[in-house]
Amino acid sequence: MKVVNSIRSLKNQPGSQVVRRRGRIYVINKLNPRLKARQG
């Protein structure tokens, strides 16, 4: 999982979901599990 400043480029990938958990923003992708990121 990467910690990035901007998750905009990751959320545009096919299959991506943006989820808020415990005040942090996560990107999870079931199609391509390498595209996981956290912001905040």
From TrEMBL:
One of its GO terms (molecular function) is structural constituent of ribosome. InterPro entries: Ribosomal_bL36 (IPR000473), Ribosomal_bL36_sp (IPR035977), Ribosomal_L36_bact (IPR047621). Pfam families: Ribosomal_L36 (PF00444). It comes from the Bacteria. GO terms for cellular component: ribonucleoprotein complex; ribosome. GO terms for biological process: translation. Keywords: Ribonucleoprotein, Ribosomal protein. Coiled coil: none annotated. PANTHER family: 50S RIBOSOMAL PROTEIN L36 2 (PTHR47781), LARGE RIBOSOMAL SUBUNIT PROTEIN BL36B (PTHR47781:SF1). Belongs to the bacterial ribosomal protein bL36 family. HAMAP family: Ribosomal_bL36 (MF_00251). This is Large ribosomal subunit protein bL36. The gene is rpmJ.
